[in-house]
Amino acid sequence: MGHHAEEFLVDSEAKAFDKDHRRIINFNMGRYDAAVERGLSRLINLDNAKKKGHVIKWRVMENLDKFLPEFEANFQKRGGKVIWANDAEEANREILNIIQKAGAKTVVKSKSMVTEEIQLNEFLEEHHIESLETDLGEYIVQLLGQRPYHIVTPAMHLSKEDIAKLFNEKFGTPIDSTPEQLTAKARELLREKYVQADVGITGANFIIADTGSIAVSENEGNARLSVSFPKIHIAVVGIEKMIPSMADLDLFWPMLATHGTGQNITVYNTILSGPRQANETDGPEEMYVVLLDNGRTNLLAQKEQRQGLYCIRCGACLNACPVYKNIGGHTYETTYSGPIGSIITPHMQGMEEFKHLSYASSLCGKCTEVCPVKIDIHKMLLLNRRDAVKSQMYSKKEEWGWVLWKKGMLARKWMDFLSGKKKNFFMRLFFKKTWGHLREMPKVAEKSFAESWKERNQSAL
Questions:
Q1: What angle do helix axes 160-171 and 136-144 make, rounded to 10 degrees?
Q2: What does the pLDDT average to over 327-345?
Q3: CA of 391: how far to CAs of 74, 180, 395, 433, in Å?
Q4: What's the rounded mean pLDDT across residues 396-420?
Q5: DSSP assignment, residue 213?
Q6: What is the mean pLDDT of residues 58-64?
Q7: By C-alpha distance, which of 372, 178, 199, 191 is closest to 284?
Q8: The CATH classification of domain 43-294, taken from the options 1.20.210.10, 3.40.50.10420, 1.10.510.10, 3.90.70.10
Q9: Pick from 344, 289, 334, 264: which is nearest to 311 by CA?
Q10: CA–CA separation, 50 vs 5, rounded Å?
């Protein structure tokens, strides 16, 4: 078992029995569920919209080699520059290069999971460049020195009291500050940073091939501020974010909003098509789009599993997942947590280290049910398990355990070979430590069903 798997077992057990964590998550998830129910009820034909989204993403993934150069050509026409990055190291190096060339010292960042994936903040810090998160949730998590807990709501695991305490310690605000007061304080702290920053870094929710644009959705307006004031804008985007046409936003924007937060449409939706043009009053002088692979083509090569790349990062599957609700986002030790993280991480970061995530599921299928682009998530989990077994990523102990189990289950005589007493003894011997320290161990009946049946029928004769 890899160290990631061992840590996962320890952390997930601790979180599952942490009552405070459960209380906060249940409260926040409850509010999300109510909002999403309202949002989805406004869509006339939800299933049809999902099918349409699935087909568009299918077309993109089958023709990604055509759509990416189309985007590049259209973006460059308006003075934008495209950087192709094979991995995190390459992306970070290219970003640092742009920053250093400009002699920049400060960066403002809007919320972006892909920059979390390449650990950009840590990398810039090592090179003495201040990188400040401007999304309120991300800002809070950054102040705590943590990674985002959730792909849409990074500070979902914190209560308003936790945040008031943090702001009190860091900025001396009253310990009983309301969320409104805390937001006002954050605004006051961050506003001047936008004006001072030399570079703005964002992600993108969609890359649009036919116009050579990126689309950014946000609820706070911080992404717009991050790209309007600084002279340089760098957008870091995974290659799977591609959509063929501007017209497709008509479908994807409402689907992202309803499934992400329950809104009809996200508050700020921005389409950026390059640096400031001659007739424009604001915007950056230079704009770069970093197209990141970082393991995505490994997943693209898997014909059966490439639909994991259809994901639009709405976070709905995390909120639906009974495992995620119990063990929380940090336990996964991956950028993308929950069901979607479990199916894509083994391909992006290595099956050997992350196969355990595909087993961290009850296969209830709720994730598949809520996905706005109909990714067959629970089937992908099974395919990952199959691949892990095919590649013989298991111990001898596990192999022999299943050989004996299969033998026992295939023949009645083997099933009855051990008496109930002996079965209970073996259960205690093998599973007491792993299962029994938190649960009451099940008791096997002293007599098997076959024995009881025989006795009853003989006495009837």
A1: 60
A2: 96
A3: 42, 53, 12, 29
A4: 81
A5: E
A6: 98
A7: 199
A8: 3.40.50.10420
A9: 344
A10: 34
Burial 416-450 (b: 16+ CB within 10 A, else e): eeeeeeebbeebeeeeeeeeeeeeeeeebeeebee
φ/ψ of 300, rounded to 5, equals -60, -30
Angle of CA points 75, 81, 86, to nearest 5°: 105
Secondary structure of 6-17 as H, E, C letters? HHHHHHHHHHHC
Query: Is 413 or 103 the better-scoring residue by pLDDT?
Result: 103
pTM value is 0.91
Q: Where in the chain is the domain with CATH 3.40.50.10420?
A: 43-294
- Say what the pLDDT of residue 169 is: 96
Residue with the bigger pLDDT between 4 and 24: it is 24
Closest CA to 233 of 292, 195, 192, 285: 285
Cα–Cα distance between 361 and 378 in angstroms, integer? 8
The enclosing H or E element of 327 equals helix 322-327
Instruction: Render pLDDT for 72-125 as a digit per residue (tens, 0 to 9).
Output: 999 999 999 999 999 999 999 999 999 999 999 999 999 999 999 999 999 999
**Burial label, 124 (beta-carbon count in 10 A; 0-12, 13-18, 19+):** buried
pLDDT given at position 428: 82
- CA 155, CA 142: separation in Å to the nearest integer? 10
Short-list 86, 133, 129, CA closest to 112: 133
Q: Which of 412, 313, 404 minimizes the C-alpha distance to 111?
A: 313
Give the DSSP H/E element, type plus range, for residue 55. helix 46-62
Are 370 and 259 within 8 A, CB to CB? yes
Q: Is 422 left (phi over 0), alpha (psi -120 to 50) or beta?
A: alpha
DSSP letters spanning 277-300 = -TT-SSS-SEEEEEEE-TTHHHHH
Token readout for 28 is: 């926040």
3-state secondary structure of 202: strand
Which residues, in sequence order, are bridge partners of residue 199?
107, 232
pLDDT exceeds 90 at position 426? no
Q: Write down the residue that tokens 């109930």 correspond to.
A: 420
Counts of helices then strands in the chain (DSSP H, E): 24, 10
Q: What is the mean pLDDT of the chain?
A: 93
> Beta-carbon neighbour count of residue 285 at 10 Å?
12
